[in-house]
Amino acid sequence: MPFPEPAPPINLKNLKINPYIFKKVPARFACHYKIMPIEFKEDVLTVAMEDPLNVNMLDDIGLFLGLKIIPVFAGLSDISEAIEKHYGLGAETIEKIIDKTPLDTEAIQDRSTEDIETLAEDASIIRFVNQLLVQGFKDRATDIHIEPYEDELQVRYRIDGILYVTPIPPNMKYFQPAIISRIKIMANLDIAERRLPHDGRIKVKIGENELDLRISILPTPHGESVDIRLLSTTMLYSLENLGLSQNDIQILEGLIKRPHGIIFVTGPTGSGKTTTLYACLSKINNKERKIITIEDPIEYQIKGITQIQVHPKIGLSFATGLRSMLRHDPDIMMVGEVRDFETAEITIRVALTGHLVFSTLHTNDAVGSITRLLDMGVEPYLVASSVECFVAQRLVRLICPACKIQIKPRKEILNEFDIENNMYNTSIYEGKGCESCKFTGYKGRTAIYEFLVVNEEIRDMVLNGTSSDQIKKKALESGMHTLRMDGWEKIKRGLTTIDEVIRVTKED
């Protein structure tokens, strides 16, 4: 008699489970036995487990819960994901704390600093904070936000530029002071001070990866809010890996070999400006050149480059740092950001005295950087004679390669991109959504660029006070590609989607 076919594994990802069932099976119990409860009916509990034929485990589970157990098969990784999704990150940890100390919400909130510090050193709180960091690293998060509200504590991860809520147990709200204090202890911050903002840093190792964590803490009416920026110490990129076209690489390589002048990289916060600057510095970093940077903060440390951290509280601003850097015999300098007239003027005069300078500005596009400098009070002749190039950039999400599908572009979209309708048959792609990309359709990011090289014609227009619209028109006639045009090229190559490019660029 042939053996019956083994039952196919149950799909836990899209399964709807009644939350009531989680009161029957504690999180620590589910984690210990690696089971996922999926249905409860008339004293019969159906659980997903890796080995449904393990009779001893089934007896233990049934005896502990006082229920009849029906097992179904599921993969171990699917079970672990389902436990985290339905019970919340750190649910087992919180239950252990509650078991040791009965939950008295008022007592926890009113504890003294010494009591909170003791709880912050509890193995379970330490484990929860570690879980937060490890999960963030696994999910490729750039930031972890811990946000207190009146009736809940929310945790969100920023992945590929978008924030996603991570489920945590509702009881986590009551351990908020201890969690924040644990992070402060790791960053050597004062846990007793809860009224003022704090900034700190933590060095951690996850597997073989070393991470530099930047901690920012802000006071709110419902407790302290925390942002943890995750920076890998090995996160440097070469110019070839930034998403630049071959033509743009040639332009940039030519610019960074010049003996003097300024190269401005522009864009909003989080658009990858610093990464582009570091890639440029790494390209020209050798023993024959003295390179000094002044930054706020120093995001990556590069061997062979002297890096200075801005410290306004003791008077070390970009402007004062720049003056001191000049006496250090530099060949190349990087100024983290030009924020005001004083910094802009000194930076420009440094470039005019025979130094190559890299810096950043916060503007919407490359041409807008000229207007920004003039608005700061910089004279047009200084801008025209010192700046070699303005590079605007944005980050767009890449289509997940595991669920990439081909689609036809809509005509109204082509019109928005000012693309001719004969391009309607062009093949473009999008992500359908799968396990690999957490059903977002995207995985990873690349950059789109806009290069405004300041040639003689552009210099004359700046000197004559020509409007930014006219300068942009002339730059386009000279071959400049706008952000949206570069985005369209990456859409045609199947790297990103139309929606992504529209999201990060304004209409040209």
Would you kindly provide a written description of the structure presented here, covering whatever features stand out?
The chain has 20 helices and 18 strands. It has helices at about 20-25, 25-35, 55-65, 75-85, 90-100, 105-110, 115-120, 125-140, 175-185, 245-255, 275-285, 320-325, 340-350, 370-375, 380-385, 410-415, 455-465, 470-475, 485-490, 500-505; strands at about 35-40, 45-50, 70-75, 140-150, 155-160, 160-165, 200-205, 210-220, 225-230, 260-265, 290-295, 305-310, 330-335, 355-360, 385-400, 405, 430, 440-455. Strand 7 and strand 8 form a beta hairpin. The protein is globular and about 85 Å long. The chain starts with 20 loop residues before the first helix and ends with a helix. Mean pLDDT is about 85; it is low at about 1-5 and about 105-110.
Structural class per helix/strand content? alpha/beta
Low-pLDDT parts are: 1-6, 103-109
Residues in β-strands, percent: 25-35%
Strand order within the widest sheet? 12-11-13-14-10-15-18
How far is it from the N-terminal to the C-terminal residue, by CA?
73 Å
The largest sheet is: 7 strands, mixed
Number of strands: 18
Quick check: average pLDDT? 86
Shape field: globular
Radius of gyration: 28 Å
Helix residue percentage: 25-40%
Query: Please, how many helices?
Result: 20
